[in-house]
Design goal:
This protein is α+β, with helices and mostly antiparallel strands. The protein is built from three helices and three strands, in the order H-H-E-E-E-H. A hairpin with a 4-residue loop joins strand 1 and strand 2. Helix 1 crosses helix 2. The protein is globular and about 30 Å long. This is HicA protein. It comes from Methylobacterium aerolatum. Pfam families: HicA_toxin.
């Protein structure tokens, strides 16, 4: 994990949840911590690591993740044992 991923990790776990966090940065963080990407139909995407699976819809038309998506990403990272 590089410094950009560490910055994203801190932003995901920050309170209050930032409305300006780009979804692409969260996806890059998931990949950096060893998650496998499973593409679905349309904007659907799943991430899997050690048998734990999280499902998301990529935000559109904007590139920023919605607050509930950031909270869901935080929960997933906690379940797989990743924390800042």
């Amino acid at each position: 994990m590089n410094s950009r991923h560490a910055k994203t990790l801190r932003a995901v776990f920050a309170d209050p949840v930032s409305p300006q966090l780009e979804w692409q940065a969260i996806e890059a963080l998931f990949i950096a911590v060893g998650c496998r990407v499973i593409e679905g139909s349309g904007s659907r995407v799943r991430f899997e690591r050690d048998g734990v699976v999280a499902s998301f819809h990529r935000p559109h038309p904007t590139k920023e993740a919605k607050r509930y998506q950031v909270r869901d990403a935080r929960d997933f990272l906690s379940k797989i044992g990743v924390a800042p």
